[in-house]
From TrEMBL:
This is DMT family transporter. Pfam families: EamA. InterPro entries: AA-Vitamin_Transporters, EamA_dom, EmrE-like. Signal peptide: none annotated.
Length: 304
C-alpha cells in the first residue's frame, strides 16, 4: 500500500519540525529539575494542549485490538525511556556531543525497517544518509566527551537513540491502522504513566518546582513536542520513518547554533563543516529516497 499524498509540500513541516526539536536540548539544560519530571510534565502539558482538539478521536478506542493497545503502551514506554536517557545525557555532556549521538537514530531505524518491514531504499539515498551522518560526526568531533562523566552522557545518549528508534518503528506499524492524532495521544499518556511510576518508585518529588522550571516544562511541551514530535507523527502518514529520522539529523545543526547563542557553547570549525555536510546529505536523501517494500502482510507495510 502506497503512502498518501501530503496536503502541503513535505519540506515545510519538515523544516518546522527540525527547528522545533532543536530547542529541546536547550530547554532541558535551562532547568535544574530532574529529567524524569521534565519529561513527565512535557508530555502532560502536551496532552492537555491536544485534548480540546481531539474531537472524535475517542471513537477509535473501540476499533483498537488488544495487541494494538499493547503496542501503543510499548511505544509510549520506549518514548519515556528515550526522554529519560537522552535528557539525562544533557546533564552530563554538551549539547553538541549529545545531539551528534542522537543523530545516529536513522541507522537504527533503517536497520529495523529493513528486517521488520522489508523496507529498502536507493543507493543514492544511502549515500546521502552517509554524507549527513559524516557531517553529524564532524559537528561533535571538536567536543567529544573524554571525562568519565561526559563518557557516561555519551552512553546514555546512545541508549536513548536506540529507544526512540524502537518507538518510531512500533509507530510505523501502528499508524497504518490508527490515526496519527489518536496514536500520539495514546502514546503520550502511556509515557506519562511510565514517568509517574518511575518518579514514585525513585522517590522523586513531582511538585514544588520554581516558576522558571514550570515555564521550561511548558515550553518543552509546545515547541519540540507539539511542533516537533506530533508533527513528525502526522507526517508518518505521508513519508517513511527513515525519511523522518534522516531529517532529524538537522537537529545537531540547529541545536549547536542555539547552544552557541543561549548557552555560550562555542561552535568549532569541525562543527561548522559538519553542518554543511548534514545539510548536503539531507538534500541528497530527500531528492533520491524511494523506499520499496516487499511485505507479505500489507497491514504492516508501513507506519511509525
Amino acid at each position: 500500500m502506497d503512502k498518501q499524498k501530503c496536503p502541503v509540500p513535505v519540506f515545510i513541516p519538515l523544516i518546522v519540525g527540525i527547528v522545533a526539536v532543536s530547542f529541546s536540548s536547550i530547554f532541558v539544560k535551562l532547568s535544574d529539575a530532574p529529567v524524569s519530571v521534565q519529561g513527565m510534565y512535557r508530555l502532560l502539558f502536551t496532552v492537555l494542549f491536544m485534548l480540546p482538539f481531539a474531537g472524535k478521536q475517542f471513537k477509535h478506542t473501540k476499533q483498537v485490538t488488544p495487541r494494538q493497545w499493547l503496542l501503543l503502551f510499548l511505544s509510549g514506554m520506549f518514548l519515556a525511556l528515550h526522554f529519560l536517557l537522552w535528557m539525562g545525557s544533557l546533564k552530563l555532556t554538551t549539547v553538541a556531543s549529545s545531539t551528534i549521538i542522537l543523530a545516529l537514530q536513522p541507522v537504527f531505524v533503517l536497520i529495523g525497517a529493513f528486517f521488520l518491514f522489508k523496507e529498502r531504499t536507493t543507493a543514492a539515498s544511502l549515500a546521502g544518509m552517509g554524507v549527513a551522518i559524516c557531517g553529524a560526526v564532524l559537528i561533535g568531533w571538536g567536543d567529544v566527551g573524554i571525562s568519565p562523566e561526559n563518557l557516561l552522557g555519551d552512553v546514555l545518549s546512545l541508549l536513548g537513540t536506540f529507544a526512540v528508534a524502537v518507538h518510531m518503528l512500533i509507530g510505523q506499524h501502528l499508524l497504518r491502522r490508527i490515526p496519527s492524532y489518536f496514536y500520539s495521544l495514546s502514546v503520550f499518556v502511556s509515557a506519562i504513566a511510565v514517568f509517574a511510576f518511575y518518579n514514585l518508585g525513585a522517590g522523586i518529588p513531582m511538585a514544588g518546582y520554581s516558576k522558571h522550571d514550570w515555564t521550561v516544562f511548558f515550553l518543552l511541551a509546545i515547541v519540540p513536542t507539539v511542533f516537533g514530535h506530533v508533527l513528525f507523527n502526522w507526517l508518518m502518514k505521508y513519508v517513511s520513518a527513515t525519511t523522518i529520522s534522516v531529517n532529524i539529523l538537522g537537529e545537531p545543526v540547529g541545536a549547536s547554533i542555539l547552544a552557541y547563542f543561549m548557552l555560550n557553547e562555542h561552535i568549532s570549525a569541525f562543527q561548522a563543516a559538519g553542518g554543511f555536510l548534514v545539510c548536503t546529505g539531507l538534500y541528497l536523501f530527500l531528492r533520491t529516497n524511494r523506499p520499496s517494500h516487499h511485505v507479505k502482510d500489507p497491514a504492516v507495510s508501513h507506519g511509525v
